[in-house]
Amino acid sequence: MKKLNLFISYSHLDEDDIDEFKKHICPLKDNGLIDTWHDRKIVAGQDFQNTIDNNIENADIICLFMSANFISSPACQNEKKEALKLKRINGVVVIPIILSACGWLDDESISSSLALPTDGKPINTYKNSSDAWHNVYEGMKSVISEESKIRNVKITENFLSFLQNMEMLTKAHSRKERVILDDLFIYPDLKKYDDLREYEKNLSSEKLINELLDYSKILIAGENQSGKTTLCKIIFLKLRASNYFPVYVSDKNDLYLGKIGSRISSSFSEQYEGISIDEVSNERIIPILDDFHFAKHKEKNIQNLSSYKHQIIIVDDIFSLNIKDESIIQ
Asked: What is the greatest pairwise CA distance in the chain?
């Protein structure tokens, strides 16, 4: 099992606390579950900022050690912003660890995050600091166990074969008997429309894929045989590489009848092995509904997707949805 990279973001004025943290998480390191990094590991001659940037970008978990020192440090605030960006685009886990009483709850960007120790109680308010650090250790152990499982989930062999299948173009490559998606895919250009369905601008599908998580809903329309399903496959692989759980659904034969949640759950089981949908937060599950123009009850199905933070819907004609309550597709 691959180790998780843990990045420590802190004010140097709180370095004694960081030493205590490192002592208490030694069992997690000794068991081969994590590698830790903080800026004291930079050696003479290394580019200071580039080294920090490279390590935070490679992190699986980022701990923000909150104190008045952290909040007042421009460098720490920059690391916090980068951490939250990586959380959004790569599924990196960001954990505030509260060292001392400070105004962290007034920072809307992190106040909703699950903090350690339990309930965000500052470490320096515990009668026994060892109790506080053990609470942090237990919380970290739980997060690491869950994240290790999520990052090691595999796509089923049958579905991976579907993702890479380019059967229609098997003779298009003179040197390969079997052509797969990676051999031939070229990012198509798209036209972007605003919420009023007015043409806005041309958009590279590669740019869209890199910015998928900036949107709660993405509606992609294209004619038959225009490559929509192939684009779904690329989107699926990109999202999974970012530690999300895309779920591809194409239900044109049954017209998306029945509960859409049940269809997503069934597809999840067919596409992933070693994990059930109940073990994954809905924030990480991203339905990709292909051929949705065949759905008989489009508006009802879209309303029932509201529990998922992100959704991608594929149709043949964006103007044929006939959704009365347009707010549900914005």
From this structure: 73
